[in-house]
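Q: Sequence in, structure out?
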Amino acid sequence: MKTDGLNISRRNILRLGGGIMALATAAPFSELMAAQAKLPDLPYTVNIVNTSSNATLVQQALLDQLGYLQEFNVNTTTTNVGDGTKLMGSLISTQSDICLLSGFSQVLPAIEKGAELKIVAAANQLIAQALYSSNPEIKTVADLKGKTIGTGALGALLHQMVVALLRKHGVDPTEVQFVNIGSSAAVFKSVVAGKVDAGPAMTDVYDQQEKYGVHAVADFWSDLPEYPYQGSYASQTAIDEKREGLIRVLAAYCKMYRFMMDDPNAEEAFMQAYKTAIGASDEAQGRMMIKFTRENKTYSRDLILTEKQIDYMQDLNLEFEIQKEKLPFDTVVDLSLAKEATKLLEAN
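A: Exactly. Output:
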């Protein structure tokens, strides 16, 4: 009997079955399917630049541990830098192609001044920081009037966050004294030492306030849910020349975000990555990091930033005179890559 031009006989069926059994013996079915679904190779490497915060280093280790970049068949290099100036310089010079996990307020004035950059995706949408103090007299944000607050440079991420928090609680920012200390880790050390009255720091120490002799005055994630904490941005050159690679990188990171928030095995996987990236000196901080992520679902599932969120950041920049005018949404944002990344993720 013939069907669609194929001669199907008992002998042919047995041969076909034997071939399938041989393949199954040679490799697990999941590997066969993965090989069949493998995305085509790309003729280039995507160069990533990120900050050197503990949270970023752990997520990079987790991404490698999970093998998501390999799953989407994209070759990458990752460089970690200590400050936003180096990060922006790396992208503007096209030495790097994309930053995945960083505040992006500085990207907007750079674009205004002619930098060929675009914000391409959302990342961590809630501020994973609290405002800490070791001064027992400071119990509320209102108590900060006339006090010193440690932040980064004026107009930088930490400073903008604190100003927005003060305003939310009806405190005039001119009534406090800002001290430029640097990173949130450095700010926390100054708070513990009593060198400043208060300052923002990460939630990895949130469960250890008694140990460090501090207390949380306010939680940024609950007080400022409208503040888009982190995003991803890329050079226009990379968008034009490495578009498919950027899409695959975004898909891999998005899959990791969903894993951290939803997968029942995420905590132990995260802690393994924490030990790889940071060491086992203080596991409590690592467990607090993943606990915060899972309880508050802080990362974007679809990588989409709204025009309202971009306007919020631009309004802050205009107030600090970091920008001269508000830029059109399409001038600073290109979400087409994020949309294609989530489609690729769903299809995969």
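The radius of gyration is 24 Å.
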